[in-house]
Amino acid sequence: MAQATTTDWSPHSWRATEALQQPTYPDEEELEEALDYVSGLPPLVTSWEVENLKEELGRAARGERFLLQGGECAESFADCRAEVITSRLKILMQMSLVLTYGLNTRIVRVGRFAGQYAKPRSSDTETRDGTTLPSYRGDIINGAEFSAETRRPDPNRLGEAYASSSLTLNLVRALAEGGFADLRHPEYWDLDFMQHSPLAEEYHAIVDAIEDTLGFLETVTNKKLDSLEGVSFYTSHEALLLPYEEALSRSVPHKEGIYNLGTHLPWVGKRTNQPDKAHVEYARGLQNPVGLKVGPDMTPSRLKTLVRTLDPDDEPGKLTLISRLGVDKVGDQLPQLVRAVQDIGHTVLWISDPMHGNTKKTEDGTKTRHFDDILGELEQAFDVHAAENSHLGGVHFELTGENVTECIGGARGLSEADLGKAYESHVDPRLNYEQSLEMAFSIVRKYRQLAG
Ligand code: PEP
Ligand code: CO
């Protein structure tokens, strides 16, 4: 098998294996030009940041941190705007505040942003009213609009994806470093509709308690707690479009190996996680920490092969397993998968993505997810890990800071009839701002219940 040793790995060794979910570009030369251009651009992240994240994830695997990974199912170029990016950061900051306080643990914040532009699809083509066109595969490949021109895979989009990632990251970094992210001013993160939310009281009680404690500490120590002024955000996306990922895979001075410098945490999706195919081959040689989606088709023996392939040295923080089994399957399937990793003596970070195993279609064909299914899978994942002498070290959500109506349920009781009001996703349904915050409170409740 191709993954036998890391010595025969290079950022392009995946090209000798079968690559699923890749577009067919009409013009090979145009593609090569676009890739050359991206290869010459500066990195989006640094190897130090990547190493820091790996260390943090290693701590999360040992129970000393909790990972909050969240963001869009798919970013779009059109949404590379201040309001959208800022709202997304606000909800992640609010969730992480609730989690830090409730879990009494430091939270590692990883966005699904600054590069989440490629999507796997179940079919290569889509037919509407007798016309068949390539499926929409994310803005890095083609456009969502159903026209021959827009759906044509366009290599110029590679540079645009790089540029949008960079513009997003620039604002994220600026906001995270100063002022806005200051823990002494959590009111900066309030979203407009917060004041009407049924959760507002519970949330503001936490904010007030934190403000009192910090004020007290600064008074008795007579010191300004400078470290409260900023927070760190890391980036992640599905490493799906391999030629693009390869173009951002670089060596750096004074360090061994190759880093993907297009994101801190690339992950391999459920549809491309076969041990002998291209995405695993690409991911296995990187210095970055990598994520692996684990779906209901995963067997314990395949998982063992994948863990040995992606984390051959059992390196702390190297591998994050993201289970996404569905509320009906997690109780049956997760225990054997957790045991499989224990059997081979590896320490990985297990987190739960309670979104992707719980997608349903309404009668009119709208994709949705029920809040109770999402929470149900998450709570069962906590229970399974506790019963297996393991622990759940984080969560992975598709969410937005906007007031969309894509998932059903939650404190405001969104129903199927409400979905039409503000359904904006071109791909998977996301938790809206309020549902996300509620999820954070629910995690705290579950965590405390288990802690007894
Ligand atoms: C996703 O995370 O958007 C996704 C496609 O997930 P999965 O690979 O788990 O289906
Ligand atoms: Co998705």
Structural overview:
With 452 residues, the chain is of the alpha/beta class. It has a single domain, classed as TIM Barrel. It has 12 helices and 14 strands. Strands 11-10-9-8-5-2-1-14 form an 8-stranded parallel beta sheet, sandwiched between helices. Helix 10 (330-343) links the parallel strand 10 (319-323) and strand 11. The termini are far apart. Phosphoenolpyruvate binds at residues 73, 120, 238, 269-271, 293, 324, 356, 428.
Considering the protein shown, what is the CATH homologous superfamily? Answer: Aldolase class I
Whole-number average pLDDT? 93
Q: The biggest beta sheet, please?
A: 8 strands, parallel
Number of extended strands? 14
**Chemical compounds bound to the protein:** phosphoenolpyruvate, cobalt (II) ion
- Residue share in helices? 25-40%
What strand order characterises the main sheet?
11-10-9-8-5-2-1-14
The CATH architecture term is Alpha-Beta Barrel
Rg (C-alpha, Å): 21 Å
Category by helix and strand content: alpha/beta
Question: Regions with pLDDT < 50 over 5+ consecutive residues?
Answer: none
Q: Which fold name corresponds to the CATH topology?
A: TIM Barrel
Give the topology string: H per helix, E per strand. Answer: HHEHEEEHHHEHEEEHEHEHEEEHEH
Number of helices: 12
Name the CATH class. Alpha Beta
